[in-house]
Design goal:
It is a single chain. The protein contains 1 helix and 38 strands. It has one helix at about 365-370; strands spanning about 25, 45-50, 55-60, 70-75, 85-90, 95-100, 105-115, 120-130, 140, 150, 160-165, 170, 175-180, 185-190, 200, 210, 220, 230, 240, 250-255, 260-265, 270-275, 285-290, 295-300, 310-315, 325, 335, 345, 350-355, 375-385, 390-395, 405, 410, 415-420, 425-430, 435, 440, 445-450. The protein has a 6-stranded mixed β-sheet with strand order 32-28-29-30-31-36, with no helix packed on it. The longest helix is centred in the last third of the chain and has 6 residues, at about 365-370.
Length: about 450
């Protein structure tokens, strides 16, 4: 069960934004037994707050007894809970998080202090899990100054600056933003509430490319070992979750789906090595082959079924940047279309949304000035995780430069892309149903993320 240890691990409450006014069940129930001189008294001021299938238990230190060396927190019933519903936390802990609670079930949480291996009496609280209101998603991006900014995914509200020096940032579904420190040894969190930034983990070997899943786990490719590493939300130490294998051509990438599927993708001229770890922790390794010219991977995304979507660069004067799909468990990458186009792709948990230009010209033609073609993004291909495909019309927006153009998609299917040249320079939103694109901002933004 996810938990937070003060000064030791990631701060991540699974509460939704709607839970800011969360239910608070009044003080602790009577302690089960009186303490003895060699045991601490029951923890003080035990409370529980929660929303949906998540709950946070908080407490204060015992008022009497010897020095506390740790705490145990127990939940009953313990169905679907790891460790049979028992968490053991250090003496600095003042709260614990529980997920996977069943809506409508009443849970009892018991908090006990431990001193020199002697456990004191429990203070208990109860909580009934209730359905949570939907959490609105936000669009995050880096501005030209390198700051993380947040936009609403609907409406025209101005952006809000969240964090400076945000290269390699990520965010969780609560809106907390995580940024690698300048020396790449620590992770700094900027709370969604707007409170003071705090360091949540140190002694790391980071790259400027953090990722996250909706549970709040953080991921990066270790700058020393090269392994894809996870900092779990449950307070345990960072651990390796995927390996690239032998990297010979520096053409590798990793992806994390919203539900926590981790993929390490390692290119070579003879095929790609793909190591994939499911959200349940099951790892598989396979080789993926290509049809046609060997491509260099430019971007990698994954949906919640393990389908992979790649933006690749193909050598030669054509300068193609097509998007390909590798279906879950498959050993071949396939193009969505044999027609070349300027393409902008974005993935959510259930689909790839691919915006494609009406016409295309080679890099050689563009450089020579012979590229008088229609760059308008005229259609949107929606490729569902279930294998379905549909094409939607798009109007009002024109492609920019060729390249691995990666956008971001809401769960509803709205797509956000940044275009780097006239006449459509700026940040744009394409509605889930297609149709007229809407300009969000005229400025340039990178590393788009919807969560």
């Amino acid at each position: 069960m996810p938990q937070h240890v003060e000064g030791n691990s990631v701060f991540k409450s699974m509460l939704t934004i709607a839970a800011a006014a969360a239910l608070v069940v009044g003080g602790a129930l009577p302690a089960h037994a009186a303490p003895t001189p060699s045991t601490p008294s029951a923890p003080a001021s035990v409370k529980v707050t929660g929303s949906g299938g998540d709950a946070d238990v908080t407490w204060g230190a015992p008022r009497t007894g010897p020095r506390v060396t740790g705490y145990t927190v127990t939940v009953t019933p313990a169905d679907s809970q790891p460790n049979k519903g028992v968490d053991r936390l250090p003496a600095t802990a003042r709260w614990d998080h529980f997920g996977a609670l069943r809506i409508g079930t009443t849970y009892t949480f018991a908090v006990r202090a431990v001193a020199a291996k002697r456990t004191g009496p429990a203070a208990t609280v109860q909580f009934t899990a209730k359905a949570a209101a939907p959490t609105p998603q936000s669009l995050f991006a880096l501005d030209a100054q390198g700051s993380v900014v947040r936009f609403a995914t609907e409406g025209t509200a101005p952006s809000t600056t969240v964090a400076p020096n945000g290269a390699g940032y990520t965010a969780d579904d609560r809106g907390d933003v995580f940024v690698p420190s300048a020396d790449r040894t620590s992770i700094v969190m900027y709370p969604a509430s707007g409170g003071a930034a705090r360091t949540v983990a140190t002694g790391l070997h980071l790259t400027a490319d953090l990722r996250s899943d909706v549970a709040g786990n953080l991921y990066w490719a270790d700058s020393v070992s090269g392994s894809v590493t996870m900092l779990p939300i449950d307070g345990t130490a960072p651990r390796v979750v995927a390996e690239f294998g032998t990297v010979q051509y520096s053409k590798h990438a990793f992806a994390v789906s919203r539900n926590g599927i981790v993929t390490a993708y390692n290119n070579s001229p003879f095929g790609a090595r793909v190591e994939q770890r499911t959200a349940a922790g099951v790892t598989t390794v396979r080789t993926v082959t290509y049809q046609g010219v060997y491509p260099f991977i430019g971007a990698l995304q994954s949906d919640d079924t393990g389908n992979l979507y790649l933006s690749v660069t193909q050598d030669g004067p054509g300068g193609r940047f097509p998007w390909l799909q590798v279906k879950a468990g498959a050993s071949a990458a396939t193009r969505f279309s044999t027609d070349d186009a300027f393409e902008y792709g974005a993935t959510n948990s259930t689909s790839l949304r691919l915006l494609q230009s009406a016409a295309w010209c080679s890099e050689a033609d563009e450089r020579s000035g012979n590229c008088s073609i229609d760059r308008s993004l005229a259609r949107e291909l929606v490729a569902g995780a279930d294998g379905s495909q549909q094409t939607l019309p798009v109007t009002g927006i024109t492609a920019g430069s060729r390249g691995s153009n990666v956008g971001a998609s809401t769960e509803a299917g709205d797509v956000f892309i940044d275009i780097n040249r006239a006449p459509s320079a700026g940040l744009w939103r394409v509605p889930a149903a297609g149709g007229a694109a809407q300009q969000v901002a005229a400025a340039q933004y990178t590393r788009l993320l919807v969560i």
